[in-house]
Amino acid sequence: MRRRITGYLGVGVATIGLMFVTGVARAQTTGTQPTSYMTVDIKESFASIMARMTAAKPEIMKRQMDLLNERYDLSDRPAKGVTMSRGKAVQEGVRVKLPKGVTWEALSTMSPDEIRAKDVFPSGFFPLPFPNHPEGGALFPKFQIEEIKKQEARDLTRFDLDFDLPDHFLPEFPAPMYLTTRPDLGDVSQGKLVTIMNFYELFNGILNPKQLEGLRLLVTPFPQQQFNQTEDRRSEKSSRGLACLDCHANGHTIGATHLVGDIRPQEFRHRLDTPTLRGVNIQRLFGSQRALKSIEDFTEFEQRAAYFDGDPVIATKKGVNILERGSQVHFMAEFQEILDFPPAPKLNIFGVLDPARATPAELKGEALFNGKARCAACHPAPYYTDNSMHNLRAERFYKPRMINGMMASADGPIKTFPLRGIKDSPPYLHDDRLLTLEDTVEFFNLVLQLKLNEQEKKDLVAFMRVL
Predict the structure, then answer these.
(1) Burial degree of 309 (CB within 10 A; 0-12, 13-18, 19+)
(2) pTM for the full predicted model
């Protein structure tokens, strides 16, 4: 199982209108010739852009919510006695809806070719589009917007879009922060969202001066594609921009979404689930397509290109913040490298279950994880990642199609995310398409053709909840 592991509606009239005036989608063709670049010189006033996009918002959000409701059971159904590290309930159950007349058992007996021919691949297993895929851009849950506004008087609200997934499917907020250097302190955030307003009082005396400066830079807002001072922004007022820890709040994740910056044309870009920064010290691949080999590379790339949809040309206009590699990038990376996984009291020093602490179901799940379910082939202990990439080739099960402005085709190789602390990091897969661990088990049971029975699926979930 891999971390950050339909009614098929086309692009509506309002969305088509947006494609010619915004973001990367606006710049996919010049006449009849494709281009990789965005339009830099905007000819429309900000007032006009905002009025038009605000008017289009209700239709766009209705289309996205109709898609989600058709794909998933979005009800709030917490698992009994299972919580994240600070106590937020973990959602339980398979939430992906099946095609009419189809059962999970029947699907498991079909070959990929049969499922493709009959068009019965569950809609919730298709790639998930961004709320307005032709537009894209950084998009935040309401709870994060409200807390940043309260602490900093900085508004992350977008006038064109709202976040789409319900709060109960997202990580807890604010998440606890653990440090490899001070495990004795537990949650060093003290239950607060770490921002530019409070980082010094929280961490002075805990971090060394380099780490403290790295954290300051990580919570400092800098101009970004949708949040800047130009007419081509998505905030009502000119914005100071985004901080790294706006998405990776407290060094974890809030489920904020975006589109990957390194794919063209626009309809092939993947929705991006913000991964946790916990445990980056044991990871070796970074970036949406894992082209970056160090956390220093990733930190620098984020500011120079990823903040601007992978287009350094437009970054200059919007105020790109060029970090100094020898000090600033190093300081930021040094802090990120000490972010630790949450405690897992049922695991021993080798990262496997302690039989004296584990339940029978958890032990059976561990045996399945290492055996029949083949999870350990990509997610070996102790951190449950092989630091590699794998192509699941889920497109074997369906014919390519447009879904709300996104082309659902092939995902390509995807990074093996660590599964330590996985219950703290919903939703799953690289594009948020799987809402629960039960959904994730069903997805891999089908895609890997494992033929797990119902009890085996439950035991596997029980094991992953204690990692």
Answers:
(1) buried
(2) 0.92
Q: Which two tokens stand for residue 420?
A: 């330590």
Location of structure tokens 């339940």: 359
Hey, what are 331's tokens?
A: 């300081």
Q: What share of the chain is helix, strand, coil (3-state, %, to 5)?
A: 35, 10, 55
What is the b/e burial string over 114-144, where b = at least 16 CB atoms within 10 angstroms of the residue's CB?
ebbeeebbbbbbbbbbbbbbbbbbbbbbebb
Q: Are 363 and 329 a contacting pair, CB within 8 Å?
A: no
Hunting for tokens 């159904």 — which residue is that?
77
- Name every residue whose Cβ is closer than 8 Å to that of residue 447 and which is 6 or more positions away in sequence: 125, 392, 394, 397
Radius of gyration of the chain (CA): 22
Nearest to 56 by CA among 147, 136, 158, 160: 160
Distance CA 127, CA 124 (A): 8
Q: H or E stretch including 367? A: helix 360-370
What DSSP element (H or E) covers 91?
strand 89-91
225: closest CA among 406, 430, 40?
40
β 33-34/401-403 pair status: unpaired
If you ran DSSP here, which 8-state letter would residue 328 be given? I
Residue pair 6/67 in contact by the 8 Å Cβ criterion: yes
Q: Which of 195, 103, 214, 205 is nearest to 152 (CA)?
A: 195
Residue 113 has which token pair? 């070719």
Question: Where do the structural domains in the chain lie, given as residue ranges?
Answer: 13-464
Q: Checking DSSP bridges between strand 414-415 and strand 389-390, what pairing results, if any? A: antiparallel
**Closest of 407, 141, 420 to residue 254, by C-alpha:** 141
CB 411 within 8 A of CB 270: yes
73-109 pLDDT, tens per residue?
999 999 999 999 999 999 999 999 999 999 999 999 9
What are the pLDDT digits (tens) for 254-299? 999 999 988 999 999 999 999 999 999 999 988 766 678 899 998 8
* Helix/strand/coil for 234: coil
What rounded mean pLDDT belongs to the chain? Answer: 92
Would you say 442 and 94 are in contact if contact means Cβ atoms under 8 Å apart?
A: yes
CB atoms under 10 Å from CB of 246, counted, come to 25
Three-state DSSP class for residue 257:
strand
- Classified as helix, coil or strand, 365 is helix
Runs of H (alpha helix) within 27-140: 46-71, 104-108, 112-118
Q: Which residues contact 284 (CB under 8 A, 6 or more apart)?
A: 293, 387
- Over residues 324-381, the pLDDT tens digits come to 999 999 999 999 999 999 999 999 999 999 999 999 999 999 999 999 999 999 999 9
